[in-house]
Specification:
Elements (H helix, E strand, L loop, with lengths): L13 H6 L2 H4 L9 E4 L4 E3 L7 E7 L2 E6 L5 E7 L4 E2 L10 E4 L3 E7 H8 L3 H27 L2 H17 L6 E4 L4 H8 L3 H13 L3 E5 L2 E4 L2 H7 L8
Antiparallel strand pairs: 1-8, 2-7, 3-6, 3-8, 4-5, 4-7, 9-11, 10-11
């Protein structure tokens, strides 16, 4: 969830600070909260699966998504270490989730947390805050996908990642992209061709460099921020 540019939770570490050590706080042991390793593109859960578990990302990156009736994929969020997945899925999984890159995920039974909340009310406050952050971030995602231009979308996405890596005050930033151009397109609601053109456009403007396909160097964070809210009309 990205606060810096009002982006979905998956890219921001604010929920990580809220969630930190929640299984320890709840007194859960390794049998109650086992850790699972996921290879790239391996499924954590699928839409329609039985719910009843929360998941904390320990390493790597995962994404939550829905498959539309025509086969298109809409990525709802990217989740980084410290993020929690599964709130709202207690009665059944409302989307699918898979690893974007090799990941480790801890599963926490909702029933175990419910029992702990009866004696540890601070757990309920933590879960409520995580849910509030996620809801606010999803609202921002809807606005971004529905109203922003292609340049604004990609600039917002890169700005959020850069700020996650280097903080709000950095003038430049270099970071890795664990997700593919296709993943980015499915998250931003664009085609892969448009994503590639916008990357090229930002590079030609001198805003970013692309030393490698998976590496982004932001040369001017302030200009990137302006482009994220530029009202530029493009496609």
């Amino acid at each position: 969830m990205l606060q810096a540019t009002a982006f979905p939770n998956a890219l921001d570490n604010s929920s990580a600070a809220v969630l930190s050590g929640i299984d320890v706080l709840a007194g859960l042991d390794d049998r109650q909260s086992p850790v699972r390793r996921l290879a790239r593109h391996e499924t954590l859960f699928s839409e329609g699966d039985e719910g009843g578990k929360y998941y904390e990302v320990l390493e790597g990156v995962v994404c939550s998504f829905r498959i539309l009736h025509d086969g298109r994929r809409q990525i709802l969020s990217f989740n980084y270490p410290g993020d929690m997945i599964g709130i709202g899925h207690e009665l059944g999984c409302k989307c699918s989730c898979e690893a974007v890159a090799d990941a480790r995920v801890r599963s926490i039974p909702v029933s175990a947390l419910d029992r702990s909340i009866k004696t540890r009310p601070e757990l309920a406050r933590k879960l409520l805050k995580v849910a509030t952050i996620e809801l606010a971030s999803m609202h921002d995602h809807f606005v971004m996908v529905g109203r922003k231009s292609a340049t604004e979308k990609l600039a917002s996405f890169l700005l959020a990642l850069a700020r996650r890596e280097c903080g709000d005050d950095a003038g430049t930033a270099t970071f890795q992209l664990p997700m593919t151009r296709t993943d980015i397109a499915d998250f931003l609601g664009m085609t892969i061709e448009t994503v590639s053109r916008r990357f090229t456009s930002l590079r030609k403007l001198g805003v970013i460099d692309l030393p490698q396909t998976t590496t982004v160097h932001v040369r001017d964070m302030f200009l990137l921020e302006e482009l994220a809210d530029s009202n530029e009309d493009d496609c």
